[in-house]
## 1
Amino acid sequence: MTNYCIIMAGGVGSRFWPYSTTQCPKQFLDFFGTGRSLLQTTFDRIAHIMPVENIYIVSNKNYREQILEQLPELKPEQILLEPMRRNTAPCIAYAVYKIKKKTSDANILVVPSDHLITNELAFLDVVKEGLEFVDTNDAILTLGIKPTRPETGYGYIQLGKGNGATRKVKTFTEKPNLELAKVFVDSGEFYWNAGIFLWSLNTIVNAFNTYLPDIANKFEAFTPYYDTPEEAQLLNEVYATCQNISIDYGVMEKAQNVYVRMSEFGWSDLGTWSSYYELANKDQDGNAIVSGQTLLYNNKNNIIVLPKGHLAVIDGLEGYLITQRGNTLLICPKDAESKMRQYAKDVAELPNSKDFQ
Amino acid sequence: MTNYCIIMAGGVGSRFWPYSTTQCPKQFLDFFGTGRSLLQTTFDRIAHIMPVENIYIVSNKNYREQILEQLPELKPEQILLEPMRRNTAPCIAYAVYKIKKKTSDANILVVPSDHLITNELAFLDVVKEGLEFVDTNDAILTLGIKPTRPETGYGYIQLGKGNGATRKVKTFTEKPNLELAKVFVDSGEFYWNAGIFLWSLNTIVNAFNTYLPDIANKFEAFTPYYDTPEEAQLLNEVYATCQNISIDYGVMEKAQNVYVRMSEFGWSDLGTWSSYYELANKDQDGNAIVSGQTLLYNNKNNIIVLPKGHLAVIDGLEGYLITQRGNTLLICPKDAESKMRQYAKDVAELPNSKDFQ
């Protein structure tokens, strides 16, 4: 059984602006003060169960330097650089057909690079079992996370037939409203979609051929150019005409052989500062200090993110996010989720926006 | 009538930390975004009524570079550098005896370098009149500011006998409590002590001889060394053994010929952020932006001080001071006057305090 992993590291999220920026998105940041970024942590985790040379990173060409710097153990051919954003289906196809050039028989794990997993042993056990499952079944397997709250920011997977921990998928539902999310959670029949997929090479190639034939044909035809001097240039042309579509919409919601493994391993997509705050280490007053040094007086339940070597003296704030990067400071209520993109957008519209993060 | 001015620029205040620091105290900062520091503004003001070469700056030797940079029109002999802090009496004596070496007949204006005066014409009129007064009277003259509120942070001067705008001084009272300050203001008999003095050379030399003979003798004896290569070295010895005493306590409160000129010229000692806030330009929501660029959402009555070229995006703060300098950020209620020194002190006690402002 030969296992590969595709780590998707192309995110450019602005929800953590200005801590994360287009120049240095979330996956490259050390959110938990461990000394390792989310990408590095993801890589370290996977390296426990498969050879390092079988782990591929797919990201945007702009992040080449960061990836090389953060994961110097990677060979150049393990870093797949997309010339533009085309959502997850082309991203996965690019890596899948590269693996297909190397081998005719493999099992593949696909994981996002910027999620948090607190129980790594449980995760690895589930993944190992999942790789065996797709090795012996023509199955597309997705990991479903047992929901702990009626989260409206996640997609949900409805369990279908079966008895064990792995079931057929009945439906996928994108971000429900709160009422519906409550019904989902109470029913016990719905699991969070963590965006983690497992399949054999044959299964996913068949799925691309069936449900996304244009993408399949493009990357099949591109096969001779992997790891050649022409790769970057020709890939440009492939992507320019490539459909922009997610693997969820393009494959998962259409294929008949989709399964979900019910899982619990302390998962969060770290999609918002609030979701980060839930998981962060906090002082006795509930302040989560991500980075930098602080002197705190009369503060409660804040998140503080400072540049390395910086100090903040803060008195009398409750429930705020205080985050600085370079010459840009943001202070706002930490639950102002919906406004955080707006701030970044408003800054981008300043006449001198280029001066800032 | 030959007029001289002594600008006292030795302050090291920590009440505006970290905007002002020991390395760059208040007098060197541009609080009002005019492009000129408080010291430069003070100098510009005085230069309207006397020759530039008659304006002396007394400061600490650590600030030589800043003074030369901010006032390049000064000749080296106009910058008097104290080797250590000995309060205002030695500071003034140092400059007075230097003037005495040059001339036997002069009138001298002494002003702090870090106060705000909003009605400069009124100030200059009062000063011109005052210089004439001390030219023709053996009088120590201090400017008293008509109080506009029961300020407990200022000293008060009680008016004595007389009819015009210039009266004998009856008493000096240092920072009263609020109750007493209210009585003072209501009485109409008490004026704020602005620390601005006028006297003739003879009058102040006589006063030093009478009330501070040790200091008088030291600087009299030092006279041959002014503007010589030995000045700095020998001054070191003078200061090391010099009494640490204010001109108020050493001379003003003891002399019999002390007068006060009742004045109104929009004066503030800018002793606290609150006193700054009263005078600052504010946006329609009451936010005073001292420096830097801002994007503000739902904010009221804040003071924001950022490094040049920095941006702050702030949402939902009311009544705060947000100030950053270098790698140090302070966020606190803007009326937390008494705590601001504490913050600076606590930072100074950090094991790695040298890393910060």
Note: The CA atoms of residues 220 and 322 of chain A lie 48 Å apart.
## 2
Amino acid sequence: MKLILIGFGVVGQGFAQILRDKAAELLREENFSAQIIGVATASKGALYHAAGLELQSLLEAAQAGSFASYPEQDGLIRGLEVDEMIAAGDADALVEMSPTNLETAQPALDFCRRALDAGLHLVLANKGPVALDYAGLKSKARAKGLQMRYEATVMAGTPTIQLAVDALAGCQILSARGILNGTTNYILTRMEAGLSYDEALSEAQALGYAESDPSGDVEGWDAAGKVLILANALFGRSLALDDLDVSGITEITAADIAEARAAGQRYKLIASARPDGGAVKATRLPLDEPLAGVGGSTNAISLKTDLMGDITLIGAGAGPLETGCAILSDLLAIQRMPSAT
Amino acid sequence: MKLILIGFGVVGQGFAQILRDKAAELLREENFSAQIIGVATASKGALYHAAGLELQSLLEAAQAGSFASYPEQDGLIRGLEVDEMIAAGDADALVEMSPTNLETAQPALDFCRRALDAGLHLVLANKGPVALDYAGLKSKARAKGLQMRYEATVMAGTPTIQLAVDALAGCQILSARGILNGTTNYILTRMEAGLSYDEALSEAQALGYAESDPSGDVEGWDAAGKVLILANALFGRSLALDDLDVSGITEITAADIAEARAAGQRYKLIASARPDGGAVKATRLPLDEPLAGVGGSTNAISLKTDLMGDITLIGAGAGPLETGCAILSDLLAIQRMPSAT
């Protein structure tokens, strides 16, 4: 399978490491083999080779900060635009891993549309295009007999989407609620251990869980983007951020945490999606709910179903290898059922 | 998809109810339609109609205790043997739902082999054939380009196998441990609430969780059968019951439960599978482990992976509709990828 990658940050590098380290295992156990033939980035440059880029050199160049140091090679093209990579006609799938933009989803959204038009399967770690134009992309994919997959957009490699969409296909999902942002869950967990909000946030930043501008996480927008994706994937509902009731954890104080604890409860930032809408809200849960027991940066989702009661999935919500694994898992699913949508 | 069912107890009836009640939804959303053309049972008789049996009549006859009351119809054949149903050549898949026998897996195992030889996909709720001859059945299926699926054998409809085998295909699973028997988990949960073992067992029997002879559950054999299946599915290891270290909960006293609680722990009957073996043992878990929080008749499994840390799935472990859903989910997976194995 020949791949074009957009974006090559920690997730892209994690994915390339997996392809490098698991090549033999994937060929043996899954009859799967993939070449990265194009990589386009905003800050490191772009590389294209129709026969496949060399993964170790690609990773070293990325770690050095620029593809300029990628070794010269017959057939290598530097600086090619994404549109030209797609138009070249060599690729089987586009993997969109550039940073999420929940306002316009651009330029990623246009790249995704062009890739589908050109007959490429689509795999996304970037939440923007799935959150803002799920229906449009899905119908383009369906019309072409292609797949659009986006396991990495919710709970990283923990297979939320495959669980809800494929494995539970015979069931109706009535609602979903989860802990879909690891940074805020880490902060709340540390506040339970006695830290103030500011101390817990600083610690999360020092550990690389929270960005220097943490607003996307702590105000609930990252989780809200995931709610938009779930609303589409589970209920076929195209919602906008404005349709959601979103608040974060910035107003939660040590006193709130203590009060909840005294009542046998625990604060969690709960993202929920229902057929008629969604929300992201700090919520007090009884300690015996499965979601209440999910600590640290771990994520979780509970799906309420018509025939099988509640099903809860708990796992990593971030991480380069975890997210890289989700992309691999989507590519394996495409190989298993190339024309399903 | 035309189906032959072996066994028509609560699981078979749950499955038939789902097909009856969801026919329109399945056709619309999954482009799926199935007819039950044959049903063979030990106690109710056997029915066969190449064009499909009528589900409501079938369910009513089953509830009346005998297929003798199923209405006469052109083309209906009563009392056909399973081998003749298979040989008739009308069916696409055999669904094995007769009671589990972990000693010989017969007669189900022979039916499964003949079905694969005759070109039928195989779906199992009966643990016996998967636990005792996974490798043989899988290789027969592979040679014929057919699927053998067995989601219902572990955690009923909670999609354990699809999670571990399909969704985590890119990951290596290093080990699995879980609460795979709902009856014993219910008894332990009630003992925590102050009941004696005998009181909790009587309550479980009154609620229909435990059978009048509860030894298969409380001595750990039901969970052990599931460990054999997981050892095959996750690690490609064919183990026998003798290879496992199996004990149940019959020795656990109210005093043990109290002692664990005083130490901040909780007893669970933990079934575990590793590449080099497996076990079923009552185990004291710290309260903050995800598995410790799983109460009542709920089941759960934690998978340790190479790239994604621990992934935990929690859901129903029994129930007619839950298990019927697993069978449907396997049939949907066969429709999505008919030639994958």
Note: Chain A touches chain B at residues 18, 22, 25-26, 30, 156-159, 162-163, 166-172, 288, 290, 293-295, 307-316, 319, 321-322, 324-325, 328-329, 332-333, 336-337, 340 (CB under 8 Å).
